[in-house]
Structure formats: structure tokens, C-alpha cells
Amino acid sequence: MSVLKNTAFQIGVAAIGGLLFGLIVGEWATNLQFLGDIFIRLIQMAIVPLVMASVIFATGSMNGAGTGQVAFRTFKWILGFSAVSALVAWVLSVVIRPGKGLDFTPTADAAAGAA
């Protein structure tokens, strides 16, 4: 296999090329930020179908003997992670107290009264 066909090598060359391009053109490179944003959004859109396809393929390739056990273990893990995430969220809300000090009483808009 040629070094030029190696994906890691291509990614490294592209990263170095992007860095050099940014250094050469300077602030003008921010005009191309939308391309990077599009690329990141496309990667994010591809994650869910890839994970779902992997789960479907793995489930479909299982034989009938251990399917019930795997489903039960998966259900236990989901419940466990849900409980832990709820507990962490509750603890963080008690410690950080988001919204503390905010005043939620409605106030009259002075501009609305002047019209």
C-alpha cells in the first residue's frame, strides 16, 4: 500500500495544508468558515445513521439463543445510565443553582405605553 493512499497520511497533509493556508491568508480565512461549519454538520448528521445501522446489523446477526439476555442487559444499562444522568443533573442543579437571582416578575414596557 502506498503511503499516499493511507488515510491518516492524507488527513495529516490536509491539516498541515489548512494550517499553512490560514497562516498565509490571515484574517481572510474566516470568510471560508462556512465550509468548515458545513463539514462539521455533515459529520454530525452521519453519526446517527451509522450508529443505528451498526446496532441493526449487530442485532440482526445474533442467533436466537442469547438475544433475550442481551436485550435484558441492554435494558439494565439504559436504566442505569438514565438514573446516573438524572442524579448528576439534580446534583449539578443544586450546586450551581442556575437562574438564581433572576427576577421573573412581568414589567410594563415603557415603549408600549408611549404608543
Descriptive tags:
single chain, 115 residues, 0% strand, mainly alpha
Spell the H/E element sequence.
HHHH
Assign an overall shape: flat
As a percent range, the share of strand residues is under 5%
Distance between the termini: 75 Å
- How many separate helices? 4
Sequence stretches where pLDDT stays below 50 over 5 or more residues: none
> How confident overall, as mean pLDDT?
86
The portion of residues assigned to helices is over 70%
Biggest sheet record: none
Total number of beta strands = 0
Write down the Rg.
26 Å
Question: Any overview of this molecule?
Answer:
- It is a single chain.
- This protein is mostly helical.
- Helices cover 71% and strands 0% of the residues.
- It is flat, with a radius of gyration of 26 Å.
- The mean pLDDT is 86.
